Structure to design on (337 residues):
């Protein structure tokens, strides 16, 4: 009888774990005192839209948006109306609480709103981090990421990282550089050819083979101490096909999907001149804008208001978190405008 009871208990525990209602919250935190007080919080979990969402401490929900995929809910709040530093996002079914996330509104750094961007006065130094310097061999490969370090492969991961850049700031400054532009360092968990970083799979996380979010912020702060700036290579046109949201699209029109293509894919014609050529055909113009950059890079639909809000908040989050000196926007001609 004891054995039967143990099996039933373990099975119930396994079922509860598999039904975990809250897997991701993005952005994970925000700040008080932003110019736009409206914040849209993405809440993700299995069938989360079938449950109720309540906020603690009297925090009011301005808007809740549910989409065709029940695993997503978009919650909008007004941060000017929130008078506590932290509040809970509670997932409930009736009176039963299924899960909770503590959301924090941090204080902005002094003079954060007066931050200066790079300009024509700056000397920009471009670095592809995987190819620059290896400052921490322990992170060359990660058990959580698919492609491992292999310096024998010309297009493989070679081990360069953020620590390698931090260790060589004297060298960079002595060259006369006043701004450092890194090719993308957010997670790129594609199977091969991921060292370039342009097929990102998590927009809020630094790739573990480069380091951590904290190390990225450290690099920026150490550059700022030298009166130098860190410039993020920001990719709005496409994500990696292995991005967690691409694997479970909030809406079908989150990306540009071609019904006559395999798994929605149709390659861009790369005809960027169609964006200013008054005689260009609409067919060519549309394929240049909406076609995928490659088979592993689905084209993001910035005309979807939820997508645009997600990208805008993500960009602001990185500026505020990492004290950035600006963006270089990748593949700008291919973006919706």
């Amino acid at each position: 009888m004891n054995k039967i009871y143990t099996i039933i208990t373990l099975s119930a525990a396994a079922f509860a774990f598999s039904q975990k209602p809250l897997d991701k919250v993005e952005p994970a935190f925000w700040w008080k005192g932003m110019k736009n007080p409206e914040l849209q919080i993405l809440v993700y979990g299995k069938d989360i839209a079938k449950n109720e969402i309540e906020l603690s401490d009297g925090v009011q929900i301005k808007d809740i948006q549910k989409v065709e995929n029940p695993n997503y809910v978009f919650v909008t709040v007004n941060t000017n109306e929130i008078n506590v530093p932290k509040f809970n996002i509670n997932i409930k079914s009736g009176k039963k609480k299924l899960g909770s996330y503590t959301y924090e509104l941090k204080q902005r750094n002094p003079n954060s709103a007066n931050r200066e961007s790079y300009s024509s006065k700056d000397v920009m130094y471009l670095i592809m981090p995987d190819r620059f310097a290896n400052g921490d061999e322990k992170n060359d490969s990660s058990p959580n990421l698919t492609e491992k370090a292999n310096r024998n492969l010309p297009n493989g991961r070679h081990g360069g990282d953020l620590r390698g850049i931090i260790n060589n700031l004297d060298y960079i400054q002595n060259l006369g550089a006043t701004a450092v532009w890194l090719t993308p360092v957010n997670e790129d968990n594609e199977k091969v050819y991921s060292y370039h970083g342009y097929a990102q799979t998590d927009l809020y996380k630094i790739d573990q083979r480069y380091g951590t979010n904290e190390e990225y912020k450290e690099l920026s702060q150490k550059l700022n101490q030298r009166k130098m700036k860190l410039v993020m290579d920001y990719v709005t046109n496409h994500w990696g096909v292995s991005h967690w949201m691409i694997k479970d699209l909030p809406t079908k029109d989150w990306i540009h999907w071609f019904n006559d293509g395999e798994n929605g894919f149709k390659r861009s014609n790369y005809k960027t001149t169609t964006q200013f050529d008054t005689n260009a055909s609409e067919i060519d113009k549309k394929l240049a804008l909406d076609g995928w950059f490659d088979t592993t890079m689905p084209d993001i639909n910035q005309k979807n208001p939820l997508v645009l809000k997600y990208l805008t908040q993500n960009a602001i989050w990185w500026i505020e978190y990492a004290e950035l000196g600006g963006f270089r926007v990748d593949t700008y001609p291919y973006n919706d405008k």
